[in-house]
Amino acid sequence: MKFLSGLCVVLVFLPVAAFSQTLHTLTGQVTDENNLPLPGANVYLTPIRKGTGTDRKGNFEIRGLPAGKYTVEISFLGYKKFSDTIDVRNVHNLSVQLKSLPQTLNEVIVTGHHAEFRKKEESLNIEIVNNDYLKQNLGGSLMQSLERLPGFNHRHR
């Protein structure tokens, strides 16, 4: 009976002990050789496979890390990748300075094509309205005579 009650006590407190494990937070900043922040740098922890990106000030924060050792990998385009093993029980704030990679660019040739554009030649019809025109296009009124002109529109109200 004592064994059974002791087993019940252990089973009740075992989950509490498992969930009471302390979780750690790793914060830090990533800068370049001139101590300028690198926004958007990738910060990745293995083997837990958890990561984040730096903000515009180069700061990062990864929460909810169980105690232990992790490999921190930090990368940013155009810079040498940083990799180091840390123990989150001892390291809470990490400052990393990435070194730029020497870049040589070969000749770049940019070729562009544009669609050939031809201005559409539009011919304009010009009609001169004089007495001869009005005699040839007699209508009930002046407006009816003018409405026979190409492009002339008159709306009756």
Task: Describe this structure as you would to a colleague.
By secondary structure, this protein is α+β, with helices and mostly antiparallel strands. It has a domain at 19-97: Sandwich (Immunoglobulin-like), CATH 2.60.40.10. It is built from three helices and seven strands. It has helices at 2-19, 131-136, 142-146; strands spanning 23-31, 42-46, 50-53, 59-66, 69-75, 82-87, 93-97. The strands form two sheets. It has a four-stranded antiparallel β-sheet, with no helix packed on it. Strands 4-1-7 form a three-stranded mixed β-sheet, with no helix packed on it. The longest helix has 18 residues, at 2-19. It is elongated, with a radius of gyration of 40 Å. The mean pLDDT is 80.
Key terms:
157 residues; alpha+beta; Immunoglobulin-like; 3-stranded mixed β-sheet
